[in-house]
Specification:
Elements lengths: L1 E3 L7 E3 L2 E3 L5 E3 L5 E17 L14 E6 L2 E7 L4 E21 L8 E3 L2 E3 L2 E4 L6 E6 L1 H4 L23 H9 L2 E6 L59 E4 L5 H5 L3 H21 L4 E6 L7 H15 L4 E5 L17 H19 L1
Parallel strand pairs: 12-13, 12-14, 14-15, 15-16
Antiparallel strand pairs: 1-10, 2-5, 3-4, 4-9, 5-8, 5-9, 5-10, 5-11, 6-7, 6-8
Helix pairs in contact: 2-6, 4-5
């Protein structure tokens, strides 16, 4: 059996990750993984887990993954052990197939490493798409609770699926590559709070981590103690033609009823847009709001105007999406249903076509 390190020489990488001393590729963010073309009879993946993989089932934070062969999901699972073997191709005769391995759950709860791929044949990278997207967001972008149909149910990684979120679906409609930087519950000036009378959750702010590989409560590998937030991201690794920013739904929970807080949100949002632009100077930017609520949308639009005036950068746009009303169902904790994500993806894809020509 041959072994192929999961790197850009052998596969197309998706998402953000880093390597450990054993050449394992550690996946952090939703959508992380790889795509490749395989020719042979047998291909097997070996995964290694972080601290979450050793926790009991009721912790509900095991990393979720899926395998696609020729566009069909053939395997999915939760990394409930420190090591797991995932057979991908087992054939009595030589076959050719496009393979996709993707992390369905988000980085904050759990990560995993992909060991060098073992196979008896050859693997080569899938070609990159002409259009590359980046989506910066929160739980909506992650696909929080999309596989749960009771809005009274709460978060668990087993019901989170990035491939069913508007972010991934928009890219499919556009035949684009997509990478996401999204963490559930996080915002620009506050994470989600259940009452605006409570203090802001300033330990759940996404902007400070955007320049890192990601963020997780777990370490990649206990041997070196590294977490995604300990490593800077190289923005030359992936240059999006367009960046979508969908942040503010969680901030609204603290801002509601307080004009001064909404104004602070607009100012800090503008500051974050400057960081995004500096890291991706050739990328167009589209700021969106809606799907779950849009009360904060005017201040998102104000942030864009502040940034435009400061920077002189004109290739930045805004869009409001229609908030869901339950007619298409709900996911866990009143999050969008698959049908709501479909509707949002269609609207967003149309806007991106307009911007990108």
């Amino acid at each position: 059996m041959k072994k192929y390190i999961v790197n850009e020489d052998n596969v197309k990488l998706t998402g953000r990750g880093i390597y450990d001393e054993d050449d394992n590729f550690w996946c952090a963010l939703s959508g992380s993984g790889f795509e490749c073309h395989f020719k042979g009879r047998e291909l097997t993946l070996k995964l290694v887990g972080d601290g979450a993989s050793e926790k009991p089932a009721n912790d509900e934070n095991w990393a979720r993954y899926a395998v696609y062969v020729n566009g069909i999901r053939t395997t999915e699972g939760l990394l409930d052990s420190i090591q797991k073997t995932v057979p991908v191709i087992e054939s009595s005769k030589e076959t050719e197939a496009d393979i996709k391995f993707i992390k369905l759950s988000e980085c904050a709860m759990s990560t995993f490493g992909i060991c060098p791929i073992e196979c008896d044949g050859e693997i080569t990278p899938i070609p990159e798409k002409p259009l590359k997207l980046e989506i910066i967001g929160d739980s909506i972008t992650c696909g929080y609770g999309v596989d749960e149909y009771d809005p009274a149910a709460h978060f668990k990684t087993a019901t989170e699926d990035f491939t069913k979120a508007y972010s991934y679906k928009t890219a499919k409609l556009l035949d684009a590559d997509v990478r996401a930087f999204s963490i559930s519950g996080w915002g620009i000036i506050s994470g989600y709070v259940d009452s605006p009378e409570k203090p802001p959750l300033t330990d759940q702010l996404l902007p400070p981590y955007y320049t890192k590989v990601g963020f997780s409560h777990e370490k990649f590998d206990d041997r070196d103690g590294l977490a995604p937030q300990d490593t800077d991201w190289n923005f030359g690794n992936y240059v999006p033609g367009l960046i979508v920013v969908n942040l503010g739904t969680n901030d609204d929970s603290w801002c509601k009823g307080h004009e001064d807080r909404y104004e602070l949100y607009a100012k800090k949002y503008a500051d974050f847009l400057a960081v995004v632009h500096n890291c991706n100077p050739t990328s167009k930017i589209l700021c969106i709001m809606g799907i779950m609520l849009d009360e904060i949308a005017p201040y998102m639009e104000k942030a864009v105007e502040i940034f435009r005036e400061r920077s002189g950068f004109e290739q930045i746009y805004t869009m409001r999406l229609t908030p869901h009303d339950g007619k298409l169902g709900y996911g866990a904790d009143w999050h969008p249903s698959p049908a709501t994500h479909d509707k949002a993806a269609e609207a967003l894809a149309a806007k991106i076509r307009e911007i990108m020509g």
